[in-house]
Amino acid sequence: MKPKEGAMSIRSWTIVLAAALAWMAAGGGAGPALAQKEPTTLLVLTRNQPRSLDPAKGSDNPTRKVFVGVYEPLIDHKPGTADIPNLEGVLAKAWKLSDDQQTYTFNLRENVPFHDGSTLSADDVKVSLDRMRQIKLGHSWVLDPVKEIRVIDPMTVQVVLTRPYPPFLLGLPLLNIVSAKAVKAHEKDGDLAQAWFNIQEAGTGPYRLSEFRVGQQIVLDRFEGYWRGWREKRIDRVVLKLVAESATQRIMMDGGQGDWADTILPGDFREMEKKKEFHATKEPTWGIFWLMMNTNKAPLDNVKVRRALRYAYPYAPMLNDVMLGRGAAARGYLPPGFYTHDDSPPEKMDLNMARQLLTEAGFPKGGFELTLAYTNIWDFQRQSSEMFAANLRQLGIELKIQGPPWATMMDLFTNASRRPHLAFYSADADTADPDSTLYKTFHSKSTHWSNYGFGNPEVDGLLERARYETNREERVKLYKRVQGLLQELSPGINTLVATSNHLLRSNVKGYVFHPPYGYGAINYYSLWKE
After folding, report:
1. What is the chain's alpha carbon radius of gyration, rounded to the nearest angstrom?
2. Element (H, E) at 126
3. Helix (H, G, I), strand (E, B) or coil at 93
4. CATH code assigned at 365
């Protein structure tokens, strides 16, 4: 009998079940139906852990799950929103922009305690932002246009730009503020306390880090002194349990061993969302699942070969047979709904066109081998990659597929000498502005992990002009030109636009889908259990 698409084979289930039972027997499950027994503890089954807890470095989904609990920015979006009119003060209680649109003045909230006992001041903001600018990782791209950060008085800070930058406010929710006291206390040999912040935190958020066991779990506990205070109904403890296998997550959710699972297979989602004890989310996100191509590695340094691969990808089978409709068809290089989206037609498989382009590129019978890496926990990436390999085989191309863990994938992204020909990953937009995805992913000077080595002088120039353009209509034109160029240059295959995939127990209340979090995080402070 043929197994259902989007589900695991019986043999795989047997292996995973044995592993799950052994894990729980060893104490990993912490007893039967623990999720129901601990009314103020949120048990999160998560597919991977952060490589670093440093807010100057982290910008992926694993770190987002921690940052949303322990850190806070100057300003943030109201829950469920993503636009400038819905920004509200967090650590800043008010802000204003100068007439020349180059100086932002922030008045800070008084008496906000950090977890290390210090109190928020302008010095903390300056140290935090300057530190990000020096480390140049994570979300530091938001600060590219910054000329200087000035402390006006203990509760007032100014951020001065080199020139007007329209999306600057949209980027500020990505920049978390750390304690200047902690930076100074733990700095060693000029490292800006990076070694310490990799495994510790010093934020103002509602939860503080209590435990970080690499390969096992992260525990966040309620911070008693949190400046917003606490409701009677709340979550006091968040346990981020590392459970990499999606099938194990399902077993544990079924057995009452989790409140939220972040990696359920589409086929299992379909089954579990029918059960009254679960709530399965399916909101559209800004996440694009890319099969990014290494444009510096032959034969993918030939644009016609890259375009041929786009025509060889199984888009419809990926969406319908593997994802079972959990996602949306790929349309260009921006998520649908962005005001600058060029509304490209959906990508379609056409092996005849692929063969024609290969012939024009000098490979009429293929005759070469490619390597592809996907994250091992994402079975849908494996399934669709195998479909892709079958298509390429018809074109005379062999595709070698490997599935390393996320930490290894991150190393492949950022180490040019190790990059395979193709890599499967999601590069989410961080804000509702196109600069937050196109610049970090496709500008040649980007230090963000999602940049896979692509660079083109014309694309660079357009991205630089567009990010600083203050006329909205002109910005739209520039970004549409960028998207048109990317379509021609084909640095990646847009396989799918993701939907959120949270599986929550139905007694977990207060969930609101927040577009900037995508499918990576949930605001724990707003939750409670009934």
Report:
1. 23
2. helix 122-135
3. strand
4. 3.10.105.10
Q: How confident is the model over 215-226, as pLDDT tens digits?
A: 999 999 999 999
Residues 261 and 369 in one domain: no
Q: Which structural domain, as residue segments, surrounds residue 135?
A: 75-183
- Length of the chain equals 530
Looking at the structure, tell me whether residues 457 and 410 fall in a common domain: yes
Q: Which residue is it, tokens 């692929």? A: 354
Q: Are residues 377 and 495 in the same domain?
A: yes
pLDDT(25) > 50? no
**Final residue belonging to a domain, choices 168, 183, 198:** 183
Q: Is the pLDDT of residue 297 over 80?
A: yes
Which residues fall within 8 angstroms of residue 298, CB to CB, at 6 or more apart? none
pTM of the model: 0.85
> Going by C-beta distance under 8 Å and a sequence separation of 6 or more, which residues neighbour residue 397?
366, 367, 368, 369, 370
| E-strand stretches of 129-201 | 146-153, 156-161
263: in domain? yes
Q: Yes or no: say if 234 and 40 are a contact pair by the CB < 8 Å rule.
A: yes
Q: Burial of 47 by CB count in 10 Å (0-12 exposed, 13-18 middle, 19+ buried)?
A: buried
> Could you tell me the CA-to-CA distances from 425 to 252, 377, 432, 486 in Å, in that order?
26, 12, 20, 18
φ/ψ region of 383 (left if φ > 0, alpha if ψ in -120 to 50, else beta) reads: alpha
**Is residue 70 included in any domain, yes or no?**
no
Inter-residue contact 376 to 424 (CB < 8 Å): no
Assign residue 173 the CATH number of its domain: 3.90.76.10
Whether 423 contacts 412, CB under 8 Å: yes
Query: Could you read off the pLDDT of 156-197 as tens digits, one per residue?
Result: 999 999 999 999 999 999 999 999 999 999 999 999 999 999
Q: How many Cβ atoms are within 10 Å of 437's Cβ, its own excluded? A: 23
Measured distance CA(290)–CA(422) in Å, rounded: 9
Question: What 3-state DSSP class applies to 407?
Answer: helix
CA–CA separation, 46 and 439 (whole Å): 29
The count of domains in the chain is: 3
Residue 265, domain member (yes or no):
yes
**CA pseudo-torsion sign 190, 196, 198, 202:** negative
Number of other CB atoms surrounding residue 233 within 10 Å: 13
Q: pLDDT (tens digit, 9 = 90+) per residue, 149-164? A: 999 999 999 999 999 9
Other beta carbons within 10 angstroms of residue 400's beta carbon come to 12
Residue 4 belongs to a domain = no
For 273-402, where are the alpha helices, taking DSSP H only? 303-312, 315-317, 351-360, 379-394
Residue in the structure block whose two tokens are 């296998």: 245
Q: Which residues contact 275 (CB under 8 A, 6 or more apart)?
A: none
**Separation between Cα atoms, residue 312 and residue 134, nearest integer Å:** 42
Residue 332's identity, in one-letter code, is: G
